[in-house]
Specification:
- Strands 2, 3, 4, 5, 6 and 11 form a six-stranded mixed beta sheet that branches. Strands 1, 7, 8, 9 and 10 form a five-stranded antiparallel beta sheet that branches.
- The chain is built from 16 helices and eleven strands.
- The N and C termini lie far apart (49 Å).
- Helix 4 crosses helix 7 and helix 6 crosses helix 10.
- Strand 2 and strand 3 form a beta hairpin.
- The chain is globular and about 75 Å long.
- It is of the alpha+beta class.
Length: 443
């Protein structure tokens, strides 16, 4: 006998069993069914809300695109030759982290890995980095974990000798992660963060935008995925008097055709990055912050002088866009300058060349990021398996005398769901050192 489907729930939606990790297969209670029906009842109002928010950009698309083309704010780039004849090496770096909230302590693990690009000529060595500790429970351990992951990514990025080195996130992302940990209220977390600031990390931070290292060993290109920027939209709104909600990424995807990019802008948001710590912070923490603040001076200077740029690129076979932060060899000609000056800009030529390389590396419509970035993201997620194995191996190697606390180190702080096909939930989570036990968006 089949169960009746509540009114308002579309045919085919399962309502007889609860879903989620560790589902034991028992029937869902009336509350779960009512909640599902209530949520689905919001679909109509939400559709209206989404249309009201996003339709203005679609309505003004043709007008805005025409004006941007006339003003030279949409720039084509060559892409076929790069796709057919790759003559460069490209690799991406990404990190992942796990915080296992064990009953007695926190097991914190961070890794950084690298992957070769699909269009890369290859032949360059790849490596990996890791960091793992058992720490007393502290609410700010996530800050330390994020900083550890950032330091590993920076070091690994500096190790690569590829022509193009992709950093997942913004240039400012690792800087913010390190700064946030050094500014922690916990003296233990701030002190541990200061220990991460080795000479190698300082050199890697400096090389992010050091003009002498722009192409030696290779360009550093930052590709943020999560993006709430409205800088381009704000400029176009003021210049053309159009209502342009939805953010820069959505706007760029609407107005660009494959093989085009927006005329870049200076990454002004990075010009203000800095390191500060609490007045009562230990001397070691203050020294680490001061050293790093000096190391990021080239990054601030590049952003302030229009040599660290931001644009959106629509690859030749994609219907979505890439947000790209990159360093150029000379200041970009202002977007309001005469068309002849903009067209002859060396910085713009460097941006177009880079757009072509990234386009070749991003075969759409399936991939929404360069293959190297996609591949390294998959690789980084394996840290969850490694952390689970490390946890079990650590428990097996505890010395004599650990019997009194062993079970509390092996247990999670919460009941694991069991039975059915779910297999239970993990006490920790894989991600970019987000909230306790879960992934964070980034970048």
């Amino acid at each position: 006998m089949s169960a009746a489907v509540p009114e308002g729930v579309p045919e085919g939606v399962a309502v007889g069993r609860s879903a989620g990790p560790g589902d034991a297969g028992g029937p869902a209670g009336p509350v779960a069914v009512e909640l599902m029906a209530a949520l689905l009842g919001e679909a109509g109002p939400l559709a209206t809300e989404a249309h009201r928010l996003l339709s203005p950009v679609a309505a003004f698309r043709s007008t805005l695109r025409e004006r941007l083309l006339v003003d030279g704010q949409i720039v084509p780039f060559a892409h076929r030759a790069a796709a057919l004849t790759p003559r460069h090496s490209i690799a991406a770096v990404d990190g992942a982290s796990v915080r296992e909230h064990l009953y007695a302590a926190d097991l914190v693990v961070a890794v950084a890995v690298a992957a070769e690009g699909m269009t890369s000529v290859g032949g360059h060595p790849l490596s990996h980095r890791h960091w793992a500790h058992v720490r007393e429970h502290e609410s700010e351990n996530d800050r330390l974990l994020s900083a550890a992951m950032a330091s590993l990514e920076l070091q690994l990025l500096a190790d690569l000798s590829h022509d193009v080195r992709i950093l997942d996130g913004s240039h400012g992302t690792p800087v913010i992660a390190l700064s946030t940990a050094l500014a922690a209220r916990s003296r233990g977390v701030a002190g541990a963060a200061a220990e991460l600031v080795t000479d190698e990390v300082v050199a890697a931070v400096r090389s992010l935008a050091d003009p002498d290292q722009r192409v030696h060993p290779g360009e550093v290109v930052a590709l943020p995925k999560a993006d709430s920027a409205h800088a381009f939209a704000g400029v176009y709104r003021a210049r053309y008097g159009l209502d342009l909600p939805g953010g820069d990424r959505f706007l760029a995807a609407q107005v660009l055709e494959p093989g085009e990019m927006l005329y870049p802008r200076a990454a002004a948001e990075v010009a203000g990055v800095h390191f500060t710590v609490r007045e009562e912070a230990p001397q070691r923490v203050q020294e680490a912050a001061s050293t790093l603040d000096q190391a990021i001076a080239p990054l601030r200077e590049a952003a302030g002088s229009a040599q660290l740029l931001v644009t959106y690129v629509k690859p030749a076979t994609a219907d979505t866009v890439l947000k790209v932060e990159f360093r150029v060899s000379e200041p970009l000609v202002d977007a309001g300058a005469p068309a002849s000056s903009r067209a002859s800009s060396r910085a713009l030529g460097e941006a177009q060349r880079l757009a072509g390389l990234l386009s070749a590396e991003t075969p759409g419509p399936h991939l929404q990021e360069p293959f190297a970035q996609y591949a390294v993201d998959l690789l980084a997620k394996s840290v969850s398996v490694g952390a689970e194995a490390l946890n079990q191996s650590m428990i097996a190697m505890l010395p004599p005398g650990s019997e009194d606390y062993l079970t509390l180190l092996a247990r999670s702080y919460r009941t694991r769901a069991g039975g059915g096909g779910g297999g239970g939930t993990r006490p920790g989570g894989v991600g970019r050192a987000g909230g306790p036990g879960g992934p964070a968006g980034n970048r």
